[in-house]
């Protein structure tokens, strides 16, 4: 019966997504929903940027296995990113009327930088989207009590997300996400009330966690732990700023003020509700400590869904798994759309020489790229399943490449007038040449290799822009889109 309710929910979500497809008339509708979304929808979209499998399964699993300090990258770093983006990047980027964030790099630094950064952005999404698709497979495996294996569950989950993202793009993401966020918020609050009755309130859960050392946050006051802690925070906190989905959700707003406040309020909402799955998962250890300890030893990510199935009434199970599927699908669809449009607009399109290539053809190019990237995600998800890679680890590794290659040119391009196209190219090359070898030679160094590459990128931008300050010669197209 539980599986039947979930199937009905999936069908309704698919229908909503297909309805979103009826609103798509051109590539801007597909990518940015015509820049016509109100603040309530923008907040929901920004909130859903990272409120996915990582938040409901990965974060609680990490908290149970480690402590609050283990969550420095997510939700703390992720929240910082959304608020910081809203404060310092949403407004100047919104004013430029861009289709993708890759367009900014082309307009400011030229086509070579555009293609290089677009590749970095697209690669960074592979682990992130795969984490969501893997979680869909996990949920279907749990719901069918193993009748649907993880590999088949991954295929089914990917197919559902692919279909409505393929047809509706950002309109489908916006409509389904808005409805799904209502399910998430209402569902998780209701489940929390039921669980609080079982634990005699919230205070006993907090007291138990404090006694077990789970609220330890700050690292040891020695060099290596402090560097690791700060690097974990900043990798996601600033490394995910130059991302298409972060930009795309804010850029779909009706106005720049909505883009700004939607990002800030969405980030605050994310941090607030990220605490709910942590409370639910840790409550399981108070209700049934021995069983949950055994499950945690095998896979900490399974603690919460196993607890819901074994201790909640049917209607509560329906609410939880409906909410869980909501968060995963809303995050997966937006994260799948982002790299596809970036690849289409900023990597493939520059090489198309046909002068008759029109907007309708671009729209179908984007849809075709969604399918191609979707197949790549499925392959990576199945490979990660064999390697037993955790959802939390897949997410943490996603933003190293954008931290090294994309962040410095973005910040310098917006806030430093003397930043040159030569500086941007040098920044990208220096960052890669320093980071990649160190990733193999000394991956466990006190200062992570991607941060050494990031510092190299900063130095290269400053030195090369000083030596060759000539800016990209403006064309009629770039003059229109330059930041005032």
The CATH architecture assignment turns out to be Up-down Bundle
Sheet with the most strands, sense and barrel status: none
Radius of gyration over C-alpha positions, nearest whole angstrom: 22 Å
Residue-averaged pLDDT? 87
Number of distinct helices: 23
CATH fold assignment: Sodium/glucose cotransporter
Instruction: Please give the CATH class.
Output: Mainly Alpha
Strand content: under 5%
Which blocks of ≥5 consecutive residues have pLDDT under 50?
A: 473-484
End-to-end C-alpha gap: 58 Å
Task: Classify the helix fraction into a percent range.
Answer: over 70%
Instruction: Kindly report the name of the CATH homologous superfamily.
Output: Sodium/glucose cotransporter
Helical/strand content category: mainly alpha
- Extended strand count: 0
Silhouette:
globular
- Following the backbone from N to C, one meets helices and strands in this order, namely HHHHHHHHHHHHHHHHHHHHHHH
Tally of structural domains:
1
Write a concise synopsis of the structure shown.
The chain is mainly α and 484 residues long. The protein contains 23 helices and no strands.
């Amino acid at each position: 019966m539980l599986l039947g309710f979930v199937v009905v929910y999936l069908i309704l979500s698919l229908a909503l997504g297909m309805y979103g497809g009826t609103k798509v008339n051109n590539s801007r509708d597909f990518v940015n929903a015509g820049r016509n979304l109100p603040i309530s929808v923008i907040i929901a979209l920004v909130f859903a940027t990272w409120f996915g499998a990582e938040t409901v399964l990965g974060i609680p699993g990490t908290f149970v296995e480690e402590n609050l300090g283990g969550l420095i990258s997510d939700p703390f770093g992720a929240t910082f990113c959304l608020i910081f983006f809203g404060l310092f990047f949403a407004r100047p980027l919104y004013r430029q009327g861009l289709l993708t964030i890759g367009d900014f790099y082309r307009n400011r630094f030229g086509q070579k930088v555009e293609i290089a950064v677009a590749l970095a952005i697209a690669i960074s999404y592979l682990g992130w989207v795969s984490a969501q698709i893997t979680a869909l497979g996990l949920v279907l495996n749990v719901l069918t009590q193993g009748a649907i294996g993880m590999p088949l569950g991954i295929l089914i989950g990917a197919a559902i997300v692919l279909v409505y993202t393929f047809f509706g793009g950002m309109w489908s993401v916006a409509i389904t996400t808005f409805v799904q966020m209502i399910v998430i918020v209402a569902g998780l609050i209701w489940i929390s009330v039921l669980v609080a009755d079982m634990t005699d309130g919230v205070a006993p859960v907090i007291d138990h966690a404090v006694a077990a050392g789970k609220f330890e946050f700050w690292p040891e006051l020695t060099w290596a732990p402090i560097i690791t802690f700060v690097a974990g925070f900043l990798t996601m906190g600033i490394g995910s700023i130059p991302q298409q989905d972060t930009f795309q959700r804010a850029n779909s707003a009706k106005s720049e003020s909505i883009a700004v406040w939607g990002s800030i309020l969405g980030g605050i909402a994310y941090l607030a509700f990220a605490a709910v799955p942590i409370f639910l998962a840790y409550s399981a250890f108070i209700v049934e400590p021995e069983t949950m300890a055994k499950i945690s030893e095998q896979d900490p990510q399974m603690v919460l869904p196993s607890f819901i199935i074994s201790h909640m009434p049917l209607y509560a199970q329906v609410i939880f798994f409906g909410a869980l599927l909501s968060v995963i699908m809303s995050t997966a669809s937006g994260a799948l759309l982002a790299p596809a449009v970036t690849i289409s607009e900023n990597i493939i399109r520059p090489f198309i020489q046909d002068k008759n290539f029109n907007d309708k053809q671009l729209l179908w190019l984007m849809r075709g790229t969604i399918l191609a990237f979707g197949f790549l995600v499925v392959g990576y998800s199945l490979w990660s399943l064999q390697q037993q890679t955790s959802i939390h680890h897949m997410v943490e590794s996603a933003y190293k490449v954008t931290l090294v290659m994309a962040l410095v040119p973005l910040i310098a391009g917006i806030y430093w007038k003397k930043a040159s196209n030569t500086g941007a190219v040098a920044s990208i090359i220096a960052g890669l040449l320093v980071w990649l070898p160190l990733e193999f030679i000394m991956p466990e160094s006190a200062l992570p290799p991607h941060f050494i590459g990031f510092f190299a990128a900063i130095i290269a931008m400053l030195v090369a822009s000083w030596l060759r300050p000539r800016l990209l010669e403006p064309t009629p197209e770039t003059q229109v889109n330059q930041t005032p």
